[in-house]
Amino acid sequence: MKYWNPYTETLPPEQLDAIEFAYFKEYLAYAKTHSGMYREKLKDINVADIKTLEDVRKIPFTYKDDLRVQQEREPQNFPYGALLGVDIAEVSAFRQTSGTTGKPVYVPESYESWQWRVESWCHILWMAGFRPRHRVFLPVGYNVYVAFWECHYACEKVGCEVVPGGALDTIGRVNKIIEVKANAMGCTPTYGLNIAEEAMKMGIDPKTMGIERMICAGEPLPEATRKRLEELYGAKVYDHIGGTEICGWAAMCEEQKGLHIIEPFFLIEILDRETLSKEVAEGEIGVVVITPLGRHSFPMIRFNTNDMVVKGKGGCACGRTSRKIMEVVGRADDLRKIRGVLFSPKTVEQFIREEFPEVVEFEILVERKGIMDELTLRTELQPSVGKDKAEEIKARLKERAKVKTNLTMKVTLEPEGALPRYTLKAKRFKDLRGVK
Length: 436
Hints:
Largest sheet: 7 strands, antiparallel
Number of strands: 20
Oligomer: single chain
Radius of gyration: 22 Å
Structural class: alpha/beta
CATH class of the largest domain: Alpha Beta
CATH topology of the largest domain: Rossmann fold
Mean pLDDT: 94
CATH architecture of the largest domain: 3-Layer(aba) Sandwich
Strand content: 15-25%
């Protein structure tokens, strides 16, 4: 079977739009009735007045800071507060955000809501070619974070065998992949690279480990990093985008050209960055605003993700009719003004992974030195790189960084193992300005 849901994945776009809008109206009414946050937030909104997609713009955004405030209300629903959309007795699973941008948001999942988000992930996996014949190794400890729990349950639902490797160290994970002959994997892009690095230290070519398919989660996947992973493992590597608050909402199909929005699970708006008031045109960068249309335990209306994407065209050679995004540019709060230049860390990762296979790991620091901002690119090279070659690479890194970012960077060569290795979200960019 080519599609996980042949009916919805091949519906004409106008029918998908109609279904999503109908779902949205029902969901809006539900949130206003059942959620303490939305009873207050939507008090001036009459659901009957929302008749077109343009009317949706009248509804206020929801921001992550709203969630942090609202979970402190309604102590009888601790720890979810006014975010809860069902009786607390219906909550069957606790999740939370990573807390990288502030206090974590606690997310209640009822059995019904959890099954809805697992179904969305089934679309993600099926598009990436995961099938019942796959034995999927998940080399992370899921803990309270959601992405790999979603992946695990969805793998089971599509018929894959799941091998959870969270309690092992990296060497143990390499050995377990080989021992059980796992042929698929789900991981962060960074940790996929780290596993390959550890395998090579063990004298094992990652291509011989047997991984033929990989789904990446947890952090952005620049095209150069995706291709590096494919080259290392001899595997097909696929991207997706999601979030704890709003679930996995877009993913890559076998064409590997952009990401399909999982319709009709979500009402997606891609809005202009300046005013957040109008939909951007195809090919333009916009901010993603999402309403997941099946989450009743944790209602979410017009959540501003702060993610910036390039809006794509509808349709695809794979036959799916859903709308697409062509690129995940990054989070708006990842962009920094440095010496008057708008800087994106993703640009650095892209050219390093594309042009410098000798770089095993890197880190970017920005510090205030006197009245000037100073950028440092710390790099760790493969141990086999000789001293003369290392100096040549250092000079080329400085040159390419200037060309790609329009900023001068100090480049350092660090000893083997000096830079941190990440299992979940990598933190390769550190803005130390103002840090004492």
